[in-house]
Structure formats: C-alpha cells, structure tokens
Input
Amino acid sequence: MLEEPFTRLMWEVDMKTVGRKFLKLLLVEIEDLKEDLDLFVTTTGDRRRANEITDYVCNENLSILHNELLGIKECLHECEEYVLSEQCPIDELCASLKQRLRLRLEKHGFLPALYHLIERRIDRIAAYLKSDIEERPLSGGAHSGSEPLYR
Output
C-alpha cells in the first residue's frame, strides 16, 4: 500500500516519465547482472585451467551460468518490449513487470533463482524512485526543512 505522502505526490509527478526512468534503470541493472555472470563464466574457466575445480564441476557451473545468461536476455527483451501506460504508479508498474518476467522465465524453463535476482533489483529501483519523488516539495520551491513537506 502506498504511503500517504507518496499518494499525494503521485498527482504532482508525471508517472510516465518516472516509469521510463524506472525501465532505464532496470535495463542498466540487468546489463550489470549480465556482466557479473560473464565474469563468473571467465573465472570458472580460469579455475578449471588452474586445476582448482574438476571438469565435472566446471561443466555444471558453466551450464547453470549459460542458462542464467539466456534468461537475462529474455528479461532484457521483456523490458524493452514493455509498453508503459499513461499514469501508472510505480507499485503497479513493478507488479506488472514482475509478473511478466516471472511468467516469461517460467515459460522458457529458467532457474527460479534468476527471477529472484531480478525481483530484488526491481524492488530496489522502485524504493529509490519513490524516495526521490517523496523528497520533492509540492510548491516547486526549495524546501527549508522547518515546515512540513506535505499538507
């Protein structure tokens, strides 16, 4: 449930712009996750060549990592294809996107852990954008901090 200050500010902020920011930030986060997984693939190969892990462990790890990388590509496609509605609050956008991502990943048989990695990023971005919106004064002027921000 939205807190009272956020509900009031929701009408003062162009939610489509916030939604676009949300999707841009999510794409950056997913790309970052992809880079992390690529690094794990490289590290796994390095560890095998150094005889730190067996062929079996290396192949199992690489299989999981490649599966997650394919899932990341599906998530990127879903986010790029997502069409924002005019005035969709962040909570509704998050719920809708989470459901679409979860269904897409399940449909293609990806590991559930990948969804949870993406879900955490969605929640973090939403919290960040909400806090940014809540810090804006309603009047458009600078907020001195001495008077209440919301009336």
About this structure: The chain has five helices and no strands. Residues 6 and 22 are 16 Å apart (CA to CA). The chain has one domain: 23-134. The chain has a mean pLDDT of 83.
